[in-house]
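To: structure subgroup
Subject: Chain for Friday's discussion

All,

I'm putting the inputs and outputs inline so they're searchable in the archive.
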Amino acid sequence: MAGFLLWENREIKGVKMAEELTLGLIGCGGMMEGHAKGLGMLWEKGFKPFRVIATCDVVRSRAEELANKIAEWQSSKPSVYESIDSMLAAEKQLDAVDISLVHKLHHTAAVQCLEAGKHVTIE
C-alpha cells in the first residue's frame, strides 16, 4: 500500500516523479508473460502510472506476440526489438526495464541497461 500512496503523491522526499514511467520488457518467454499479465491487471484496476513502450527478445516472434497482448489492455502496441542494443538506442525516453532472461544472462543485460541510465528489475 505504501508504494501506491507514494506514487499517487508523485513525490518522494521532495523529488517529483514522472507522470508516467516508461517500461521495456526484456526476454518475452514464459516468466515475462506472467509479469505482463500482472501489469495488465494493474492497468485494468485503474493503476496506470506506467506504459510499456518496448518488448525485446532474440526470438522476434515472442517479442511481437507479447507486444500484441500488451496492446489489448494498454491500447497502444509497444515497439518490438531483437536486441537490447537496438532497444536502448531507439527508445531514449525509456525509464526502466524488466529483465526476464535465463539466469546466466541477468548480469550482462542488467549492467548494459544500468550503464544506459535505466532503472532495472530482474525476475
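Points worth raising on Friday:
The domain at 18-122 is CATH 3.40.50.720 (Rossmann fold).
DSSP finds five helices and seven strands in the chain.

D.
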